[in-house]
């Protein structure tokens, strides 16, 4: 697999030590506070930690609790974060330590299997940008994707979908087949939905777009994105993310708890979409606590996350772990019954 194939982590947040083989579909499942989100945040951290803009890196660390928040039990206990990661056939080993003068984490070492060590940072920055993390939890009235957006902000879908209107406009104009797939998937979940209304406003060099839509029973009027339910708005973001043209799509897509606010029908459609894009070369990493969503995936897709003795533990599941239970339970059901681990420890 040319995407993220293997990762080792030491000392990052609640992760004392992790060694995981990654697959086309990776479903992190476990209790609240087990460490699923900490694993996901590794990839956000790496993007900022190697950014040429030092001020941007410092701001990210400070906004997320300072350097101690990134080290297992703080810098008094953990002095360094080590991450080994294989991306696009490149193998990287990275180390990070605290700069006590600025309360930030700085990259102290980076090694790779590249012939020219001077290319380490250049290639790593490129490779890590092929892994994108998304959070679509916030769908309130003030959220950015429901406001006017700059027409030219369409190169990629941003992590909170705040540029979804120009991104959809670009897809409609340049990749109409994929645009129709996005619309049709939304119609499966929201049968009243007819199409998006993506009209440009403003002067030629300052054009903007507002995300609006049509109801199939009233094509003479269009409606605000604020008139969509939270679940529908969230599904629109996810359908756009997963069904965007392959040329634009990240090689690895990471999404935290995609099931939030979704009707069971929408969960079924979403799981089918995830499996389709994974078969088309994308890699998907999701975290979930949804029995219903989990039931749609195979045992080998799962990573069971437990929190024991102050640290997160990650275990790749396989069909043998289910034993005879596989005849009776789907994976989500087996997890909810406490047969696989990943439940709260009292």
TrEMBL record:
One Pfam family cited in the UniProt record for this chain: AAA_21
This protein's name: SMC domain protein
Organism: endosymbiont of Bathymodiolus septemdierum str. Myojin knoll
Sample GO molecular function, one term: ATP binding
Annotated ATPase AAA-type core domain residues: 25-293
Record-linked CDD domains: ABC_ATPase
Lineage: Bacteria, Pseudomonadati, Pseudomonadota, Gammaproteobacteria, sulfur-oxidizing symbionts
Gene Ontology biological process terms, A to Z: DNA synthesis involved in DNA repair; double-strand break repair
């Amino acid at each position: 697999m040319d995407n993220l194939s293997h990762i080792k982590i030491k000392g990052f947040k609640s992760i004392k030590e992790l060694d995981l083989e990654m697959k086309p579909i990776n479903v992190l499942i476990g209790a609240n506070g087990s460490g699923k989100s900490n694993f996901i945040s590794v990839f956000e951290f790496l993007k900022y930690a190697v950014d040429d803009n030092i001020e941007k890196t410092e701001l990210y660390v400070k906004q997320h609790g300072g350097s101690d928040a990134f080290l297992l039990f703080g810098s008094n206990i953990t002095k360094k974060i080590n991450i080994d990661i294989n991306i696009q056939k490149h193998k990287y080993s990275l180390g990070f330590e605290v700069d006590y003068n600025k309360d930030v984490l700085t990259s102290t070492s980076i090694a790779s299997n590249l012939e020219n060590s001077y290319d380490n940072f250049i290639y790593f920055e490129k490779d890590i940008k092929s892994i994108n993390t998304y959070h679509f939890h916030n769908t309130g009235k003030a959220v950015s994707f429901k406001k006017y957006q700059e027409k030219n902000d369409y190169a990629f879908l941003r992590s909170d979908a705040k540029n979804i209107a120009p991104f959809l406009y670009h897809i409609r104009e340049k990749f109409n087949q994929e645009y129709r797939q996005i619309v049709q998937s939304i119609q499966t979940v929201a049968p009243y939905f007819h199409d998006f209304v993506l009209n440009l406003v403003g002067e030629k060099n300052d054009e903007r777009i507002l995300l609006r839509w049509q109801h199939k029973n009233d094509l003479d009027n269009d409606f605000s994105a604020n008139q969509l339910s939270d679940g529908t708005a969230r599904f629109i973001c996810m359908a756009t993310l997963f069904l965007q043209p392959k040329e634009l799509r990240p090689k690895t897509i990471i999404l935290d708890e995609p099931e939030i606010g979704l009707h069971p029908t929408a969960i079924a459609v979403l799981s089918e979409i995830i499996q389709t894009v994974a078969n088309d070369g994308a890699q998907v990493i999701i975290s979930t606590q949804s029995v219903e969503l989990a039931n749609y995936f195979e045992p080998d897709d799962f990573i069971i996350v437990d929190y024991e003795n102050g640290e997160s533990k990650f275990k790749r599941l396989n069909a043998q772990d289910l034993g005879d239970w596989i005849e009776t339970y789907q994976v989500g059901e087996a997890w909810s019954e406490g047969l696989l681990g990943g439940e709260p420890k009292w």
